[in-house]
Structures are given as C-alpha cells and as structure tokens.
Amino acid sequence: MGSSKHGWCLLTGSGAKFCAISNPPSIILRDTIVVADMHLGFSVIGLSASRRAIRKILIGEADAILLPLVEITPRPRRIVLLGDVKECLGYPRAVFRDQLAYFFRKLAEHFERIIIVRGNHDGRIAELLDHFLIDAVVTDMLLIRDGNVLCLHGHMRPTKDYFDRASVILSGHIHPIDADGRKVFVLANFAVGSEERHHKKLVILPTSNPKLSGTVIGDRSHVSRVVGRLIPIEYRDSYSLLRISLLRTNSQYCLDY
Predict the structure, then answer these.
(1) Is the residue at 254 inside a domain?
(2) Structure confidence at residue 167 (pLDDT)
(3) Pairwise CA distance, residues 50 & 90, whole Å
C-alpha cells in the first residue's frame, strides 16, 4: 500500500481503506469525508471588538476550515461533521448565526450531502439548518459503509445495536494532542465481551479548528478510560484495550490497521 498524497492510509480488517489528511484533520473513506469538532465561534470567545471586526474574524475562522476541504481532489461526495459544529451550546446570537449560515452554504456548494452527528455543543442545530434552508441530515449516531463504520461524537454511549454491527468507530470530542501540544489521531484496538470476544478499531479525530488545541493523551490507562466511555453500558465491565497509536497530523503514515 502506497502513502497518501494528503497523509496516511489504513486498512480495516474488512478491507475498507481509510485516508487521513492533515489540513483540516479528517478521514476519507471512499466518497465520504469525516471532520470533527469545528467549534465555529470559538475564535472570538472573550473578545471585545466591534460587530464588524468580530464578523470578519468569524468568517476567517470558517474559511480556515472550509478552504482546505473544498480543495481536496478528488473531492468526496459526502461530508460527515462529527459533532460540535458550533461553540455556542444553545441558539447562537445573530453574528454567530451569520457565520454558521456562511459555513453551511459554502459546504452545500461543494458537497452533495451533509450529515451532522450531533455533539454536546450542537443544541438546536437542526432548527438552524432549517432556518438557513440547508438540506442536511442531523442524527446522534451514524452507520456508514453497510454498517461497518460507526460515527459518533463521543459524549454519549452508542446503542448496543449500532455498536455490535460496526467493526470500526470514528469519534471526536476529546481533541487529542500529544505531550508537545501537536494534534494527533488516536488509533486503538480493543475487545469487548466476556464469553465471545468482539474486536473493534477506534479512531479519535483531533479538532479541525486551527485555533483550538486539546487534551493531552497520556498513558495507556487514559486511553482505556476514553474507550470505556465509548462502548455500550452492557460491555462496561468486559472490555480490554489491546493496542494504541498516536499519529501526528503533520506526518505521513502508511499502515495496516
């Protein structure tokens, strides 16, 4: 398997090829690109400035995520936003609504389908999209590639039905970085079940917002606790972490996973 032009590639056990790109940090699977934790609006939190200045900063923040996405060639047909699209927890003020409208209208120009997997910051996101007249799917978890890949934000456990069907899980939420403060993808292999063991693969994406950092991923026990929050309650006492890797977003990798 050769290295990817944009980043690194991996193969799931079922032969599905993933390519990860560094700008913005995201995963491409066939005709789908998955991006996590945009937190649109974060760049002006605590800033005291005129409405005009704030609007300019917010559009710049949106463009910093949008422009690399739309320059990807060949461009995927579908985009999955893996939660925390916006920074505001509830219904945003007008200047933030303008930023979100700008962001989604640009996305709609370049992608045939937009899917949002809701995060803990995405209150009333479906209402906003209706207001913007954006045709998008909003859900709490998503199965893609014939149910083999489960997409969820990471702040809530998946249902057992969805979890059992998937062999690969894509998640966000924790904004992983390494000890040097560099954004990383977390790759983990783990097993669940007390009698019949089911092996799963997990990829945790870093935030796609250049202004945001994240949580330092510590030792193996830290990752094990994160995995424990991403499995159904039925398996909470019967899972084990088998292997972990931290992949920097500014490096190139080619590996079987």
Answers:
(1) no
(2) 93
(3) 23
> Strand pairing of 184-192 and 198-204?
antiparallel
3-class SS at 233? helix
Which among 214, 250, 217 is positioned nearest to 24, based on CA atoms? 250
Q: Is residue 256 one of the residues assigned to a domain? A: no
Q: Is the peptide bond before 24 cis (omega within 30 degrees of 0)?
A: yes
Q: What is the pLDDT of residues 207-217, one digit of tens each?
A: 999 999 999 99
pLDDT given for residue 250 in this prediction: 62
**Residue 81 belongs to what domain range?**
7-248
Q: Is residue 65 part of a domain?
A: yes
**Among candidate residues 111, 174, 171, the one with its CA nearest the CA of residue 141:** 171
Residue listed under structure tokens 């937190």: 39
The mean per-residue pLDDT over the stretch 230-244 comes to 92
Burial class (CB in 10 A: 0-12, 13-18, 19+), 127: exposed
CATH number for the domain harbouring residue 67: 3.60.21
170: in domain: yes
